Amino acid sequence: MNLRLLTTSCALALMAGTASAEYTLHIIHTNDLHSRIEPITASDSTCGAEANVAGECFGGVARVITQINALREELAGENVIVLDAGDQYQGSLMYTTYKGDVEAEFMNVIGYDAMVVGNHEFDDGDEGLLKLIELVDFPVIAGNIDVSSSNILAGMVENHIVLEVGGERIGIIGALAFDTTETSSPSDAVIFTQEIESLAADVAKLQDEGITKIIALTHVGINKDLEIAEEVAGIDAIVGGHSHTLMSNTEEGAMAYPTMVGDVPVVQAYAYSKYIGHLTLVFDDKGNVTSATGDTILLDASVAEDEAAVARIAELAGPIEEMKTLVVGSTTEAIEGDRTVCRAMECSMGTLIADAMLDRVADQGIQIAIQNGGGIRASIAAGEVTMGDVLTVLPFQNTLSTFEVTGAAMLAALENGVGGIEEGAGRFPQVAGISFTVDGSAPAGERISDVMVGDAPLDPEATYGVVSNNYVRNGGDGYAMFEDAANAYDFGPDLADVLAEYIADQGDFVPYTDGRITMQ
To answer: Cis omega (within 30 of 0) on the bond before 511?
Structure first.
């Protein structure tokens, strides 16, 4: 597929000399906020109050509110719409505690004009999506799902909408990732259609109604967005999400904002409330885009937090402190999570976490789990296990990641994992579904032997399904061999939630190691 990608400057040069603009539309947009109601750190986890006062935090909905209100004031009298490209749900204790109430409340404060369904809006089943739809004051769309057979969603999800803005009709069409059935929990009554097929049909419907200005609001990821821009005629711009792609004209390594595919601008604004996007489109009197400009806006400490939102967030945070005392299960003995153990050999906490990860995705054909020992931050004492205990063990808000690699890449990953034992490096691999022997006296890179996946020897040529956390999958702790893994999906549930739910299912848990890692 030849995507004909152009930078913004190239696109504008090509557009020079076209007919004078008849209509200008400003699109303010967000995507993949993932319940980051409170400010975040540079690494996207919840930022503490002291760090926020010190100016070290980013985002949070209080800054999103301030920045969008400022843009509305600046653009008063002009044509402005505010869109969200999905995944408001899942990723912080605000979601774990309130299950969508808080996200919906602040979306109404922000005042979106439309939102496309994200895959994580299905994390609590069809009921979770229904709750969001019923609570928000704007339409939630997804053209590539048929919910007519659902006894709770039928008639609730709009296929597409038309907004009247400044005397013009703007068609908004939407699609979410076709593989949502694998990455979230929609019911069998929700039938998915391929994204391109669905969007093309919706464009045709709108054009039949005489609508010439059509925006695709998508939650399918940047690669699919680029393909859509190439394949679906009649789309004037794509506002996307799902892949958490940073687009910027000032930040090194970012994609251009917008990235042009032919004459179609494609935009996205990273994730976690750290940025918002502002795209300005100019149309001629025939509805053709003659100019597409803009950029993402970093919500750092220079953006003041809306005072009313800050007060409300403080009020909502009280029960979260209570949640930390919630008992999720019990253990007959202490679960060993000390760094001196988990970064050097199989430890019972590492075994527990890896087992929990593999159990969560076993029905997806995943065979191997791997958790970096450095991501394990504490032990748990015998007796009751609280959510606070779990969050102390796994404080980073890492999410579950699934992907595919060859046996050769898996062997390289294990060699990386045991390559820093002498220094107590955090890369040490705690695993499930796989066993191996480590010769700590051998040179780094030559320490692993006797690797078995289940009951069979590791095949270097075979492909294996793997589950880990998003930090490791994206190359953290030296796992560079996972960065380009096939069929990678990094945005599963919070690893702490996975562990808590697994402990809850065990009854009175008995900690163990079983020799899956043999040290020589």
So the answer is: no
